[in-house]
Amino acid sequence: MRAAVLIAIKDLRQRIRDKSFFLWGIVAPVGLAAIFSLLLGSVADGDSIRVSFGAVDLDGGEVAAVFTGDVLGSLAEAEIVESVVVFGSLADAERAVGAGDVDAVFVLPAGFSAAVGGGGEAPIEVIGYVDSTIGTQVARAVASSFAGEINGLGVAVGTVFAVEGSQPDQAAIDALISEVMQIPAPISVGAIGAADKELDSSTFYSAAMAVMFLFLIVQFGVLGLLEERENGTLNRLLAAPMRRSSVIMGKAITSFVIGVLSMTSVIVITTVALGADWGDPFGVAALVLAGIIAALGLMMLVAAFAKTAEQAGNLQSIAAFLLAMLGGAFFPVAQAGGLIEAMSKITPHAWFLRGLGDLAGGTGLTGILGSVWPILLFAAVTMGLASLRLRRMVAP
Amino acid sequence: MAGNILEARGLRKSFGDLVAVDGVDFHIAEGETYGLLGPNGAGKTTAISMVTGLLEKDSGEVVVAGRSITTSSTDAKAAIGYVPQDIAIYPDLSARENLDFFGRLYGMNGKERSARVGEVLEIIGLADRADDRSEQFSGGMKRRLNIGIGLLHSPRLLMLDEPTVGVDPQSRNAILESVERLSQEGMAVLYTTHYMEEAERLCDRVGIIDHGKILAEGTRAELVALVGQRDRVRMSTNDRTEAAAEALRSHAAVDEVTASDGGLEVLVRGAAAALPRLLELAAGAGVGVTSVEVVEPNLEAVFLHLTGKALRD
Ligand SMILES: Nc1ncnc2c1ncn2[C@@H]1O[C@H](COP(=O)(O)OP(=O)(O)O)[C@@H](O)[C@H]1O
Ligand SMILES: [Mg+2]
How much is the ipTM here? Predict the structure, then answer.
């Protein structure tokens, strides 16, 4: 172990000296996170998107009044919704939404209040403007949240979508929804599922870039093994009075420390400079550690099968980008459905981001274990496969 | 055997069909300098790699300082200093940092280490460049650093695998001098080379190795005796070399005469005593001798005698 630590210290000195760590471990992720959140953040965070809602009260009861008054009123007050118009008839409302005057209309059916009281069926309907998928989805979330609030009273929420044509910008929608959900009562946050929770854009891109580059920079440790073999120093290490496995251990420690240094730096810098909000520190630490181990596992696997350090570096870089893309670090894939969505669930990136989303939603350490274990599973599988071969690299 | 720092017995190693080391036995006494002399591909590096525990032996046994060396040895390797054939240093670290790292790896601590690093920098003549990155060094300087790392922890046995290959004459001389000095200070040395002069100059005993086998072993004198005490006399003549050859063969001490371009090569027992008579014989045959050179037998000749080929081609 002593020898492994000495090797790691030597490696870290080399890496710090050649500046590769600073460049790839700090400058690149922070820089890209800043660029992405500047470019895309304003849109995603809803600063320039405003939706307007309409409502038709066909019920006239007390519960319906709470919805049209307090609930929608609070959205307008929070400046999330530009305007709320209450229409006198369903026909007026449909005309307005058809013309795009409002983005979505809530229809509170006759008997709504009575149904809430008596357990009947009277869903709130949402009618959306065909070109405003964002508005429609936000409206739907509002309705379902309200329904969640009074769930015990047996109200179902129905939505009518008028969504056709172009694909919605899911990140923007989700960001907006999450903002809606953060408004205090009368809309409860508790009713929405984990997948609906999203990070604000600067936190999202900080986290996404940090985890993507994490998978790149771990190579500065493990690849040292191949480098040492190529420049002959591996034999020198193996001739020294220590275990052969200490060399591998040393390289793993190097990767691990580089990962910790990079993630910590990125978290601190993005918090200070970009206003990222990473959430509960213990939860973040758990996700980060799991992520580092997963990155290490992948790197070991790549190193074990590559022929040269250069080849391994290239493979690892490609893998890092693919996994990041698949894991939703650039654009959301969780809603893509089918194969892509299934594959995304293999990536540590997806779980890392989801875990951070949960933390942003107020979950603590225990709440994100469901995101931590899939990351650790990835680590275990890759390390297991790597160990089948990696020992050969220091075998006599 | 007591007093031996190294005992290697029955070392054998094949790579596929190729038998690289084919039953090698040798030992090195405390403080002795032992040379493995052989051409490229003879099996020197393979042998030394098994002795250092880097390479798994097919069979055989290595004992260094009383402890068996295998590929899984740890502490036992501390007695060995290893200088690989190819330069193995960290180019982005300075000479001092390279030495310091390996010093730590060999468990040297604090003051002892930094003092010894300074000492080694002097020995290898890099004290004034100690803090420059080694990638800026010339080939010879890198070679010297390569050696410095091996002797840093004052091992009882230093193994140098062809440490002068590809260096300028000046660095080469510096390397040979430092090996001599270490040997005088009592360090045992295993030195492999394909340069006959280096083996002759440095080694107390030499093993001549070819095709993975040690063909002969002993002090220089012992090895030379294998060829017989025959000196090689080279004569440059004007012409009529055939007639001269005929005349020289009549001398009792002459074993062999061969014509070479522009002269003759005579294998003769006791050249010093026979030389005046040989010149008379040549003159009697009407041959003008323009120069004479007496070459005493050396390891090159021994190698030629044992294998029928030159050490270097
Ligand atoms: N790892 C290896 N794989 C296959 N053949 C090898 C290997 N190492 C050495 N050899 C072969 O073994 C023989 C002895 O090599 P080596 O010990 O390097 O000789 P030397 O050091 O005397 O030049 C050579 O024919 C060489 O090609
Ligand atoms: Mg060799």
Answer: 0.83
Instruction: Tell me: do A288 and A384 sit in the same domain.
Output: yes
Distance, in Å, from the CA atom of B8 to the CA atom of B68, rounded to the nearest integer, reads: 10
Compute the average pLDDT of residues A262-275: 92
Distance CA(A259)–CA(A162), nearest Å, equals 46
User: Which residue's CA is the closest to the ligand 1 atom numbered 3?
Assistant: B15
Same domain for A255 and A122?
no
Nearest CA to ligand 1 atom 16: B43
More confident residue, A262 or A44: A262
Residues of B within 8 A of A14 (CB-CB) are: 90, 92-93
Domain membership flag for residue A170 = yes
Residue B66: closest CA among B4, B11, B158, B8: B4
Q: Which of A132, A150, A181 is the last residue of a domain?
A: A181
Q: What is the pLDDT of residue B273?
A: 84
DSSP B187: -
Q: Which residue stretches of chain B are H helix?
A: 44-51, 95-105, 110-123, 139-151, 169-184, 196-202, 220-227, 241-249, 271-284, 299-307
Q: For residue A182, is pLDDT > 80? A: no
Q: pLDDT-derived band of residue B21, with 50, 70 and 90 as boundaries?
A: very high
B75 vs A contacts (CB less than 8 Å): 241
Closest ligand, as measured to the CA of B38: 1
Q: Which carries the bigger pLDDT value, residue B260 or residue B176?
A: B176
- Nearest of B105, B42, B274, B309 to residue A3 by alpha carbon: B105
Residues A216, A345 share a domain: yes
How many structural domains is chain A composed of? 2
**Residue range of the domain that includes A128:** 52-181
What is the Å distance from ligand 1's center to B46 Cα?
6
Q: Work out the mean pLDDT of chain A and round it to a whole number.
A: 80
Residue of higher predicted confidence among A298 and A63: A298
Pocket test residue of B24, B46, B51, B55 for ligand 1, highest count of atoms within 8 A of CB:
B46
Q: How confident is the model at residue B307 (pLDDT cuts 50, 70, 90)?
A: confident
Contact B92 A243 (CB under 8 A): no
What separation in Å is there between the alpha carbon of B145 and the centre of ligand 1?
25
